[in-house]
Write a structure and sequence with these properties.
Thrombin, subunit H; six-stranded antiparallel β-barrel
Amino acid sequence: MENRKAHRVVFGRGFSANMMAIDGTWQRPCTMQDASDTGARLTVDGSIEGLALKEFFLVLSTMGKAYRRCQLAWVNGDQIGVSFIKSIDKKKKS
């Protein structure tokens, strides 16, 4: 039974992307297998051992203009699940 809160879009061949540390100290190529409004499933190229995955960027474009801030949700071999971190709500107009 499906327990996800949001509908997922599955990419047949995957979508090439990069994971990058918030401070830019590390980067890993990955393939986004599926995504929703709340998170994604990634296949990581290379080891994730020793990487600070509490919070990182998922860079979706080669120019770095399309990205999502993420946190690690789960690990299963070379695949990881990430939750997208929502930006802080903008102040309400008075």
